[in-house]
Amino acid sequence: MDQVGTDVDLSTLERAVVNAFQGGFPVTERPWEPAAAALSERGVDVDAAELLATVRDLDERGVLSRFGALVNAEEIGGTATLVAMHAPEERYDEVAETVNGFREVAHNYEREHPHLNMWFVVSVASEDEVERVLADVEDATGQETYNLPKREEFHVGAKFLLDGPVSDGDLDLSQLGPEVEPSEERGITARERDLVVEIQGGLPITETPYGDVAEAIDQPVEWVIGTIKRFNEEGKVRRVGVIPNHYALGYSENGMTVWDVPDELLSEVGPAVASLGFVTHCYHRPRHEGVWPYNFFAMTHGRDEAESEHRIEQVRETMAEFWDVDDDEWDSLFSTRILKKTGIRLDERADAQVRSEDGEPTDA
Q: Fewer Cβ in 10 A, N or C end of the chain?
């Protein structure tokens, strides 16, 4: 985990909120009371009403991307894949507009690379649809696509901690709320689907956020609270809390480092790189012979070029503990433009996974 300063003007309380609640926010009917009490125990004197108002203000100012449950789309169902493409310079904006026009494309970035300069994420209800979407993209753009699905996930997620109270970011109140039993059932029920779609963009920042969600989907609040808490334990929700806008905190350098790791070392290299607190994503992905020689991706963030380069060097030093890394065995691709960022659409993916309450598949 990183502890950093920030370019935005934040009060001591605001810094405490960002640090404390990037995960482990209470899933209880009135969560602000225990959250405020926990902050007060850490020396930040605040009551529930002031804490609620602070989170709402941070959200309205864009310091937060949102407040709520970070849904793990992969565990809900369907699939997402990373795709690389070359877009000719003279046609770049035209190609980007065409790619962005596909509703299955969730994110799209321009990245610095002599050939593969467009990187986008395709999110669909089933793996069978990936091939169809990529064929349609190729037909529409005249450009070849290179599918880079995740083979193994070593780490996803990072805490962007600020100078100030709760600087270790270890305040975890996820144990509060009802006792729940994780389910081994595959898929989700129809009402769980409604819950996922309702909360995917964030929770309402109100005195009773889970109660407001329950009212919106016409379900008992006890069921909503119990289901979100169970999803958190099952991995369908990665965490509940504030989701910082890292750009607002000054993290303008988004570096995707890629490595040609000897296959037999992946199982050792992956956890070692994932343990670096500033690495936000860490995956094994396939190579493409003659075009893309790299099989390991590690995403880093920095507030400026110098900080980014330092962190990339730390990744390289970690790699060097396992083998002699040549200059042609790695690269770093910085994003230069966000071309599209709509988030993963979960409604269709969730629809495809719906089962009945007794576990049987359903068309509902």
A: C
3-class secondary-structure state, position 318: helix
Q: Per the structure block, which two tokens stand in for 126?
A: 């089933």
User: For the whole model, what pTM was predicted?
Assistant: 0.77
326: its two tokens: 């040549």
For residue 197, what are its two tokens? Answer: 């779609």
Q: What is the pLDDT along the chain (364 residues), one digit of tens a residue?
A: 344 444 568 999 999 999 999 989 999 999 999 999 999 999 999 999 999 999 999 999 999 999 999 888 788 877 889 999 999 999 999 999 999 999 999 899 999 999 999 999 998 888 889 999 999 999 999 999 999 999 999 987 767 878 899 988 889 999 999 999 988 777 788 899 999 999 988 999 999 999 999 999 999 999 999 999 999 999 899 899 999 987 777 666 677 999 999 999 999 999 999 999 888 889 999 999 999 999 999 998 777 778 888 989 999 999 999 999 999 999 999 888 989 987 655 555 455 555 445 555 444 3
3-state secondary structure of 343: coil
**E runs forming strands in the chain:** 2-4, 64-71, 79-85, 105-111, 118-124, 145-148, 152-156, 160-162, 188-189, 237-244, 253-259, 279-284, 296-302, 330-341, 354-355
Residue 72 CB neighbours (<10 A):
18
207 vs 49: CA distance, rounded Å:
8
**Cβ 93 vs Cβ 117: under 8 Å:** no
